Amino acid sequence: MNAFEDEFFKRVTPADPTACRSEMETAYTEGLKAYDDVKAKNYLALASDLLSIYPVVEKIQVDCKPTKLPNKDPRDDPAL
User: What does pTM read for this prediction?
Assistant: First the structure.
């Protein structure tokens, strides 16, 4: 899990946490592939990678939709 996911799950209760985490991992991996394509100037592979990311992002919008937001910043909690 990367730092973004860690912070997200500390602050937000998503609609489907298991699917949300899985889709975030997939989007992160696909995003790294797209980044590598840009560095390599492989624009055909980049287009293909971006098209494969799109359905994952659509699922993230549904499964990671917050059902409950915290009232305060979790860093303000001395127990953390």
Answer: 0.72
